[in-house]
Write a structure and sequence with these properties.
By secondary structure, the protein is mainly alpha-helical. The protein is built from 13 helices and 5 strands. It has 4 domains: 30 residues, no CATH class; 117 residues, no CATH class; 45 residues; 87 residues, no CATH class.
Length: 304
């Protein structure tokens, strides 16, 4: 199956918002995503840094108490443990949370943003590792240069070399300001971006939608054209109810199942939704019946 494609929305309805992007799935479904703004990303990162600092302070107090309990012995071991825990916190804090089901750190969850795959599909572990490994070059290295520059500015050649390194590092730090998708260098390498992730609200069951009173009757061959994956995509289309997407999906389904007289059916958005609701109910009923007998048809390519 081909990868999903991302591109700016050409429809004039969305041109007013430069943060909106579209994700076109292999089924031709146009999903709208909103790029997280700079303020949300900076705020989330600041919250995460605050959590990391507080955690590090708590670790320091705990280890100090342990060292005190040992009556001054084992200082080298305590220091080694502190360095090791600080290393893991600095390098794996972001990876641990972004590899989770929400693909977001506590700071990102608080600001309702998350990491997503720019090409569609699940966020893979190697992408999370790549984007966070670059954070050392993008943030912690500039921070180290900055601290060094404060103490070495007036110490001859070494101070100037540190300043040049600081300028070079800030190119990576400010990289999101120079591209429309606000991609970090890590995002560019990993194929990810940070998007809005608003709190979802449960909608009513689409199977309880108004009945079409037998207007649409589908043959078994027409219903068997799709599987569980397409059922989920169709459900998302019906819930979002974007007129352009509804029109595109209706046309694709009618072409796939060779629906007679499609011009008479898809004349208004309400008529298209009625058709899609009827097909959704028929497809869901068929797939649920198969599940009762232990048969699960994953997608349209599964011949079960």
């Amino acid at each position: 199956m081909s990868q999903a494609q991302t591109k700016p929305r050409k429809n004039s309805t969305y041109n007013a918002d430069k943060n909106v992007r579209t994700l076109v799935t292999p089924e031709g479904i146009d999903l709208r995503l909103r790029i997280a703004d700079g303020g949300a990303r900076v705020g989330a990162f600041t919250l995460d840094l605050t959590i990391m600092i507080i955690t590090l302070i708590a670790i320091s107090y705990a280890l100090s108490y342990t060292a005190f309990s040992m009556n001054g012995g084992g200082e080298e071991v305590i220091v080694a443990v502190w360095v090791l825990l600080a290393f893991f916190l600095r390098n794996f804090y972001f990876m641990f949370f972004e590899m989770g089901p929400k693909a977001a750190t506590p700071g990102k969850m608080a600001l309702k943003i998350r990491v997503a795959n720019r090409h569609g599909g699940h966020l893979k572990a190697n992408a999370v590792f790549a984007r966070n490994a670059m954070r050392e070059l993008e943030f912690f290295l500039p921070l180290s240069f900055f601290l060094s520059a404060l103490f070495m500015m007036n110490q001859g050649v070494d101070g100037w070399l540190t300043l040049l390194g600081l300028i070079w590092s800030f190119i990576f730090l400010l990289f999101p300001l120079f591209n429309k998708d606000r991609l970090r260098a890590g995002d560019l390498i990993a194929g990810t971006w940070v998007v809005k992730s608003p709190k979802p609200f449960l909608s009513k069951d689409l199977a309880e939608a108004p009945k079409t009173e037998g207007r649409y009757r589908f043959s078994q061959m027409q219903i068997d054209a799709y599987g569980v994956k397409e059922l989920h995509v169709l459900e998302n289309v019906l819930r979002k109810n974007d007129p352009k997407t509804v029109e595109e999906v209706t046309g694709r389904i009618m072409g796939k199942i060779e629906w007679p007289d499609p011009e008479k059916t898809e004349n208004t958005n309400a008529a298209r939704r009625e058709f899609l609701n009827a097909y959704y109910a028929a497809l869901r009923g068929k797939l649920e019946t198969k599940l009762l007998f232990g048969v699960r048809r994953e997608d349209k390519f599964d011949r079960r």
